[in-house]
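Why run this: before we spend reagent on co-expression, it is cheaper to look at a predicted model of the complex and decide which construct boundaries make sense. The entries below are exactly what would go into the expression plan.
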Amino acid sequence: MTDDVALAAAGDVSAFERVYQTHLPRVHSLVRRMTGGRDTDEVTQDVFVRVWQKLSTFRGDSAFSTWLHRLAVNVVIERFRSETLRRQRLRGGDDLFDTISAPVRSRDFAMDFETALDRLPDGAREVFVLHDVEGYKHHEIASRLDISAGTSKAQLHRARMMLRKHLGRKESDYDD
Amino acid sequence: MTTDRFTSQLSEYLDAGLPVDERQSLEAHLASCDRCRETLDELRAVVTRAKNLQDSAPVNDLWRGIHARIASGSITGRVSPFRRAITRRLSFTIPQVAAAGLALMILSGGLVWMARSGDPRADVPAIRAQEEPAVVPANFADKHYDAAIAELEQTLDAGRKSLDPETIRVLEENLAAIDRAIDQCRLALATDPANVYLNTHLADARQRKLLLLRRAAALATKGT
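The model came back. Tokens follow.
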């Protein structure tokens, strides 16, 4: 546990602000990717408020960043998910992705990729971010999203295929 | 086995999740199928890119809102130590002081009016502040809330031309999303009125709408 995390856990707001500044880019990016850019700032604020509330329960058994990212994932899931809506999203969404315009050739492949990621159907995007960006296993994703591991695998493949289809060319093609 | 069937296995193959017999079968297919090999390469590129995404900080200052929320006293368990800390860290910019002054004027005027009229309601929200008085808890009594929303919407309408179209588009999308959340909560609460989560979520959604409108109205007012 870093000094600032320990101080923040004891109620030191200055230390908490430093913890916030340190982890803000990571958390904000995680939230943005999981939500597809919807209400990213507000959800990020929710995450850090929750961190403040829960910090005293962090015992240092895992890395703080791991604890923080898992908490952030929980906040996103709670914020945007109800059982019904999640199931609806996991079933549909291909049409939404298909309606977006084709990507413009750009040197900034990362930006293109992030934009394409934002436009994935919610269910596919969540699983993709958790698995391929955050490194979660399918059984963990299944547990957190309350879906089966098979659904998680199917959504991951769906997301990858959509991204591949949308990007339309290999990464190396973007290297000028 | 069809090519489509093999294609559907490519992600699991990349993740080393296929049983041995299926993996061997797929690899035999890949040796003779250019299309599947190309797809596999593209999927691998997607996975590689995902692992190398760069994080970026938000454009907006989020700390102020976090600071306000954890200082508001509405969060249980951590209020006392924070209040000790905030007394030594609190500082204001000139616009913040001006906004706080305006809020104080409105609040004071309201209190005087209520004292004179004998109205016991001492919790009328300040609805015309340029910036929200962050440490003043919002009041969600419908009558006052609705009045505040209506007034902010009028202010926003009046200054709408000063906002650029993209801002208006984003604003309208966000407001629509919040309204949908509010409607869903209300519907759910109709059958489960004592549900703590739903009530909390509704209050949160309403507060978000109020804050968003306040910010937008302030922005529109500045531009006129």
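The domain at 1-80 of chain A is CATH 1.10.1740.10 (Rna Polymerase Sigma Factor; Chain: A). Chain A has two domains: 1-80, 83-176. Bring this page to Monday's planning discussion.
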